[in-house]
Write a structure and sequence with these properties.
The protein is built from six helices and ten strands. The chain is rod-shaped, with a radius of gyration of 37 Å.
Length: 351
């Protein structure tokens, strides 16, 4: 008879996974305060932060679900083994019962007294009978314990898995809700930017509460996450000659960063670049950030590497949300360099 094996650590592992997902993604964000009326620019920035936290926790929950799914498959294999062990116990009970019947275990005591040839034979028969009864009782009790343990393990595993799946559904719903609010706020921000460009007057700097992000070097990319689109020197009907910068495809409202330390040379609205910022850096270089939806600095401000200077948009001569980034040797159009090797020479390769 094979003993039934219990694996008590697997079900608690499923239950402990739920604790990882206990905190709502917006809790940390809800504790932040911007002070005063933050406006739509700050609302977009906050929603970006909310969406990032929600996405991280959703992905963490999804990955944990994959781990638990693999554990659940292993656990199901263990449960199958327990079921087979119980089946073996049932077979053993059947064999014991059949053997007891063949050996006369079903005869009443009076019949055994009549049929016994001697007191010694009667005692031996009674001893065999007691041992058989004890074996049967032990086997029955062991089978009952194994069946109860199996039922308990199955119920706990099912409850843990259901809770994990429910939490992931909640995280997915919360993530979708934040992303919907963010999309609505993005286009409100773009509407304000379009109005400013049409009027030819910027709204002025909107000071945003930038979360602390360590910058490893003296130079960074102008946006943290992106896809490269139109490159320097490419042709097309949208430009009079050749494309003068590198485009980064990013959603409206994405925080735009100064690629290095410098001073804000110009903030302007209107024209082909829409809302734009030009920053002067050491060595006689200038960087331009165009088609913005909002600015967070004023002309003359000193900026640090990675500091937020605005939010991306699609103002001016733009066919969709993106950041147009240029490197120049003068503040004006017409003196641009290819930004990709320029950044790479400063330890910032664009992937």
């Amino acid at each position: 008879m094979r003993p039934s094996r219990r694996h008590p650590l697997l079900v608690p592992a499923l239950l402990c996974a739920l604790a990882v997902l206990a905190a709502r993604p917006t809790d940390a964000v809800e504790r932040r305060r911007d002070g005063g009326n933050p406006g739509i620019s700050a609302q977009v920035a906050r929603l970006y932060e909310d969406a990032a936290v929600a996405t991280q926790q959703y992905e963490k929950g999804r990955q944990e679900a994959e781990v638990q799914r693999a554990r659940a498959q292993r656990f199901e294999a263990l449960l199958d083994r327990e079921r087979r062990d119980i089946a073996v116990m049932h077979d053993d009970l059947g064999r014991i019962a059949r053997a007891q019947y063949r050996d006369g275990g079903d005869l009443p005591l009076t019949a055994q007294l009549i049929l016994a040839g001697s007191p010694e034979e009667l005692m031996r028969g009674q001893q065999v009978f007691s041992q058989a009864n004890l074996a049967v009782n032990n086997a029955i009790e062991k089978s009952r314990r194994a069946e109860a343990r199996l039922a308990k393990d199955e119920a706990e595993a099912a409850a843990a898995w259901q809770s994990l799946e429910q939490r992931n559904v909640e995280l997915a719903g919360l993530k979708k809700d934040i992303e919907q609010k963010l999309e609505e706020a993005r286009w409100q921000l773009q509407g304000q930017a379009d109005a400013s460009v049409a009027a030819g007057a910027c709204r002025g700097a909107v000071r945003l509460d930038q979360p602390p992000t360590p910058v490893a070097g003296a130079w960074v990319t102008p946006v943290e996450t992106y896809e490269l689109s139109a490159g320097f020197g490419s042709g097309g009907s949208r430009w009079a000659n050749r494309h003068t910068g590198q485009d980064f495809a990013v959603p409206i409202g994405t925080p735009v960063r100064s690629v290095g330390a410098g001073r804000v040379e110009k903030v302007s609205c209107g024209g082909a670049f829409g809302i734009e910022i030009v920053i002067e850096h050491a060595g006689g270089y200038y960087t331009q950030y165009a088609h913005l939806a909002a600015v967070t600095v004023d002309q003359g401000d000193r900026v640090a590497p990675g500091q937020w200077i605005g939010q991306s948009g699609t103002t001016g001569n733009s066919t969709g949300p993106h950041l147009h980034f240029e490197v120049r040797v003068t503040p004006e159009l017409g003196s641009s360099l290819d930004p990709v090797p320029w950044l790479a020479a400063r330890g910032v390769p664009l992937g």
